């Protein structure tokens, strides 16, 4: 009869044998023996200086794709001291949770600089509510909803974000509609409970004004109602930007290449840097002097000029000069004279763009644009006004916001007159070329398939995050509107642009931008009229 010690040893041997079988099966299922044999053989022949680094690089190719584990958001300040959103994306990398990226989203205020104090207070309150709600959503709902997703799947994640915000917007609209109906019922009940008033005596009736000596009433196209987003909409921008940066890190490529692959479905072989729009002079309604119709004088380098040369000529230590102008020609003369002193030719080495901010100089009482103090122009007259200036200064190749977006017919007339001479650009208007703000993410990266030119513009509440630069390069934007060359949040973008230019030059994949072309914009052809019999009206000969 076997002793207990013998039985125990036999049992341990069987358990060890079973354990070895499981280990062999586990390693075979994961292909470890073959990979170990391959890397050990290649390591011997390669004879690397860092053996373990060589082994790590080899096995890194077989690691699992990092997945999102959590997203953390908090409130920080932008360049203007306004509240904005900082987002951190954590992923499981090589079995450990790791912080991949920290991103700060730019804030936006669509109201003009000359807005009323009460409107400014309301906008600041709405911004704070939006930021607070967005942070709450990111730290709770979206952190759980995006958990275990692949951060490189940008389109999938953007779709989740957009659908969630659309659902929130619809729920908010239903709530507001119900509240309006309840108020209407309450008002109707109150009206029935009040007795009808006694008829007034004919003598007590108010007399209608005769309007003697007054001109005809001014008809003004009303402003479109300010688009109000549901609280928490900033979530889309903050998360989309952060996920894009995390996806680039996971893929081990530059952010602009990752964005380009999202748009073109593969990384392009060559890249073209956007032409920077650098603000040199500031004017406008709030500036001293009589000039209202030009808020920013910007210079644009000629296509092909190296960015380092652009920066050396355009950057100064004071930023944009805010001086006194009484006519738009004064600023243009000053810039062209400065170019001449530097032995540069206006219209050859550098071009000029004007930010007109037409919505800020519109007089609602008179229905006209106060282009200069004491001088007003109707919407239909602005085309001739700017056409004369463009004829005098052919170096001006772009006008931004020459009038309000509500002036539909006047817009088309202005485009018809000016689009052969310059780019007519509108912010948040149906227009060509397009002007996109980096806070308007997530962008449809296929938005310019119709051969439109894109301008990426930074917002007023920008941060030191240089995402806008990568977005502009990845989207193939024609221009990058950076503002005045001062303050850290702008200089950081210029430095990042310089860095990318150097990298692309070293790799030999930097493409020179094409020469400027102006897409001619004509009013749409009216549909054929129908005669009384239902057929088309015959053409007149």
UniProtKB/TrEMBL annotation:
InterPro entries assigned to the protein according to its UniProt record, in alphabetical order: DD_ENO4, Enolase, Enolase-like_C_sf, Enolase-like_N, Enolase_C, Enolase_N
Pathway entry: Carbohydrate degradation; glycolysis; pyruvate from D-glyceraldehyde 3-phosphate: step 4/5
What molecular functions are annotated in GO for this chain? magnesium ion binding; phosphopyruvate hydratase activity
Q: Which Pfam families match?
A: Enolase_C, Enolase_N
Q: What's the top EC group for this one?
A: lyase
Sequence segments annotated as region (Disordered): 176-217, 517-541
Family recorded in the similarity comment: Belongs to the enolase family.
This protein is called what? Enolase 4
Q: What is the lineage of its organism?
A: Eukaryota, Metazoa, Spiralia, Lophotrochozoa, Annelida
């Amino acid at each position: 009869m076997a002793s207990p010690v013998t039985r125990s040893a036999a049992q341990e041997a069987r358990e060890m044998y079973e354990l070895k079988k499981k280990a062999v099966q586990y390693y075979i299922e994961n292909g470890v023996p073959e990979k170990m044999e391959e890397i050990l053989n290649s390591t011997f022949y390669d004879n690397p200086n860092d053996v373990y680094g060589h082994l790590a690089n080899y096995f890194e190719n077989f690691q699992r794709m990092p997945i999102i584990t959590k997203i953390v958001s908090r409130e920080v300040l932008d360049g203007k001291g306004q509240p904005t959103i900082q987002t951190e994306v954590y992923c499981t990398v090589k079995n450990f949770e790791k912080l991949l990226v920290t991103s700060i989203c730019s804030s936006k205020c669509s109201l003009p600089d000359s807005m009323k104090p009460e409107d400014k207070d309301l906008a600041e309150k709405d911004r704070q509510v939006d930021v607070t709600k967005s942070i709450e959503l990111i730290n709770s709902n979206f952190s759980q909803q995006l958990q275990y997703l692949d951060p490189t799947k940008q389109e999938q994640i953007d779709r989740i974000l957009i659908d969630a915000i659309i659902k929130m917007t619809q729920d908010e609209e239903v709530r507001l509609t119900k509240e309006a109906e309840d108020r209407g019922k309450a008002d109707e009940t109150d009206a029935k409970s009040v007795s009808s008033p006694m008829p007034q005596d004919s003598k007590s009736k108010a007399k209608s004004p005769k309007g003697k000596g007054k001109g005809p009433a001014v008809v003004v196209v009303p402003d479109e109602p300010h688009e109000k987003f549901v609280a928490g909409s900033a979530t889309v921008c903050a998360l989309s930007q952060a996920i894009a940066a995390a996806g680039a890190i996971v893929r081990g490529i530059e952010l602009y290449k990752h964005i380009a692959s999202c748009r073109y479905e593969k990384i392009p072989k060559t890249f073209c840097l956007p032409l920077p729009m650098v603000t040199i002079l500031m004017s406008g309604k709030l500036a001293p002097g009589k000039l209202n119709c030009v808020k920013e004088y910007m210079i644009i380098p000629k296509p092909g000029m190296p960015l380092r040369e652009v920066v050396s000529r355009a950057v100064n230590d004071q930023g944009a000069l805010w001086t006194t102008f009484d006519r738009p020609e004064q600023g243009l003369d000053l810039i062209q004279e400065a170019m001449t002193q530097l032995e540069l030719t206006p219209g050859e080495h550098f071009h000029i763009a004007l930010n007109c901010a037409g919505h800020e100089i519109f007089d609602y009482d008179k229905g006209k644009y106060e282009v200069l103090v004491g001088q007003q122009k109707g919407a239909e007259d602005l085309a001739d006004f700017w056409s004369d200036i463009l004829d005098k200064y052919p170096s001006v190749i772009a006008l931004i916001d020459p009038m309000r977006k509500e002036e539909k017919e006047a817009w088309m007339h202005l485009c018809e007159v000016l689009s052969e001479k310059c780019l007519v650009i509108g912010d948040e208007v149906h227009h060509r070329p397009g002007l996109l703000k980096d806070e308007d993410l997530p962008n449809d990266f296929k938005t310019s398939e119709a051969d439109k030119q894109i301008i990426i513009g930074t917002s007023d509440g920008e941060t030191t995050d240089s995402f806008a630069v990568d977005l502009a390069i990845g989207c193939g934007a024609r221009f990058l509107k950076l503002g005045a060359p001062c303050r850290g949040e702008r200089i950081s973008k210029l430095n990042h642009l310089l860095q990318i230019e150097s990298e692309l030059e070293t790799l030999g994949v930097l493409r020179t931008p094409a020469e400027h072309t102006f897409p001619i914009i004509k009013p749409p052809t009216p549909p054929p009229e129908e005669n009384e019999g239902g057929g088309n009206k015959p053409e007149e000969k």
